[in-house]
Amino acid sequence: MDVDSVECLSLPDAASAAAAMDADDVSLARHAHGALLAAAAAARAACSKGGAAVPAVASGVHELLECPVCTNSMYPPIHQCPNGHTLCSTCKARVHNRCPTCRQELGDIRCLALEKVAESLELPCKYFSLGCPEIFPYYSKIKHEAQCMFRPYNCPYAGSECAVVGDIPYLVSHLRDDHKVDMHSGCTFNHRYVKSNPREVENATWMLTVFHCFGQYFCLHFEAFQLGMAPVYMAFLRFMGDDNEARNYSYSLEVGANGRKMVWEGTPRSVRDSHRKVRDSHDGLIIQRNMALFFSGGDRKELKLRITGRIWKEQQTPDGTCTPNLCS
Prior knowledge:
Layout: H1 11-20, H2 23-48, H3 56-64, E1 78-80, E2 86-88, H4 89-94, H5 112-120, E3 122-124, E4 135-137, H6 138-147, E5 153-154, E6 165-166, H7 168-177, E7 182-185, E8 188-195, E9 207-213, E10 216-227, E11 230-239, H8 243-246, E12 249-257, E13 260-266, E14 269-270, H9 275-280, E15 285-288, H10 289-296, E16 303-316, E17 322-326
Parallel strand pairs: 7-9, 11-14
Antiparallel strand pairs: 1-2, 3-4, 5-6, 8-16, 9-10, 10-11, 11-15, 12-13, 12-16, 16-17
Helix pairs in contact: 2-3
């Protein structure tokens, strides 16, 4: 159905316009609404049969409800210009009340017909092609998609604002080939971090190492940043998967020298949580600069930290207690 065939009315004019509609207009409007509902039903039927792709009719319905500016799905209030071009409420403010298609002033016209159509629809999750089998009422779909387990992951590399997204195997290849990240197998690690001028906290390089164990991938981060007025170093682990899987694992980090040591134990955070979110929650081993220099020994003018650690999987015994399962 063409977008221009849906006539949307401003609230003050809706009653008078409805009274002026003749029988043919009513029949045409009902026919268009019915066609949209039939398309949605076809989408549900195809999904229930395990179709490999969303049928063209459902795709057409989705395009009808797609904002032409941001390309996101539109939710009430859906606005339109006098010529019938629609856009979402967020973009209405962004385009300074001018239709981006015909440049007419938008005013306060609501597309009530399109909003009613949306209420009647049930559509597949937008991650249908990635394996999600779920179908939702239109207005519930966006909430599911924000948490859908099939949604792609963001690149976990923290040294730059990388916009790459994908599944875990793709991101592992991306980290190795594009970011040149060190890859290691095994659940124990022993890393040495050296920095010639430890006072340059602002320019410290983010370091990332990827470990493969228990058939999963883990990202070990080490970086320097300002915590209030104090420069600190921090190490933490992220799990390349969802949070419910991350809870099955634990890890420890240890740093020390000169007869002293600091130990951290915790659960790795999912890469669904951004690197900055984990860092700002202080969920990891935090080392004050003075302590880091003490561990480095010598004249304290060069950072030389050795961080060791291990990853283990929590395994439940028949009596309900959890014991660590270490990889070989």
